[in-house]
Each structure stands twice: as structure tokens, then as C-alpha cells.
Amino acid sequence: MGNKLTFFLVVFCIGFYGAVAYINKPHPFDKHIKWLVENSEFEYNGETYPSIAYYSSAELQVIAYGREKIEKADSQALPKIKALYNHRENTLMFTKEMDITEFKTGYIVVHELVHFLQNTNNITENTECIQSLEEPAYKLQAEWQRQHNHPGPYPNFLFVRLLSLSCSR
Ligand SMILES: [Zn+2]
């Protein structure tokens, strides 16, 4: 009887310790959110992080552009989508091969988290043109890359300008 109780307690304690360790584990978004708050006007007050979903690269292009647009366009014409943020569902979508904890992919995660903060700071709902949300995201992404000496591709600001210009059309 005593042995069984000890056994139960040991199992329970290990389980409990495991659960606490899991809960206290830093989320891969924590450091990026901290950096973004320190380097922008955005506030973060503990809003629920986006849920994360993974798709194949082809699936992500369809979600971003729609099947029709992809079929019509010359495949070179549409920029490849690596990640997407859905502000209605607060979901971040990445390609399956992406490990969001790696330094290598940090600039993509930072960019998408700008869209999350635009949403929680009520900027998204107050914009008339969704493309105008890209410029601040690319600017902060570039600043993060500069500060972290990140080799990954820098945003093309001509492309970013064109996105913003498409708003006034
Ligand atoms: Zn974006």
C-alpha cells in the first residue's frame, strides 16, 4: 500500500514538474514581441498570440492569391509567399519546412508579428487599404535584420512602395 502511494506521488510529481516546465517555457514569439515593442510605437498587453498553422508552399500561394489569380498569372509574376497572418482568426500560417525557432527564419516571424500587433493595436480595423499595412512591417523587418546582422533577403523597398501606391488607385 505504502509503496503504491509513493509510486503514485512520484509519478504525480514528475507529471506536475513537467507541466510547470512546459508552461514556463518561453514562446518563440516572446523575444520578437519584446523587440518590436521596444523598437516601435506598438503596445503589447498580453493579447493571445496567434495560433500557428503549417501549409505546403503551393497551398500557401493559393490561400494568399486565390486559385484563379495563380492560374491567370505567369508563375514568375507573383511574389512567393513564405508566411501569412489572418487577422480575423488571429492565425499565422507558415510553410511546412519552416522552423520558426531558428534565427534563419526570424525576419519572417518578425514581419508577421508586426501584422499581429497592427491588429491588436486596432490599426488593421481602421485601415482602408490592407496593402498599406505592409510598409511598416517591411521597415521593422529591415531594422530587425540590421540590428541582428541577419543575412536573409532584405525587403525590396521599390516593391513595398508599389504596394502602398496600389492603395490610392
Ligand atoms: Zn506582410
Q: Helix and strand layout, with pairings?
A:
Layout: H1 2-24, H2 30-38, E1 51-55, H3 57-65, H4 67-72, E2 83-86, E3 91-95, H5 106-120, H6 134-147, H7 157-165
Parallel strand pairs: 1-3
Antiparallel strand pairs: 2-3
Helix pairs in contact: 5-6
Could you please describe the fold and organization of this structure?
The protein has a 3-stranded mixed sheet with strand order 1-3-2. Helix 5 packs across helix 6. It is elongated and about 75 Å long. Helices cover about 50% and strands about 10% of the residues. The chain contains 7 helices and 3 strands; from the N terminus they run ααβααββααα. By secondary structure, the chain is mostly helical. The site of zinc ion has 4 residues, from helix 5 and helix 6.
Task: Compose a concise summary of this entry.
The chain has 169 residues and is mainly α. Helix content is 50%, strand content 8%.
- What is bound: which ligands? zinc ion
Total strand count, please?
3
β-strand amount: 5-15%
Number of helices: 7
On the 0-100 scale, what is the average pLDDT? 90
Number of domains: 1
Structural class: mainly alpha
Helix coverage percent: 40-55%
Sheet with most strands: 3 strands, mixed
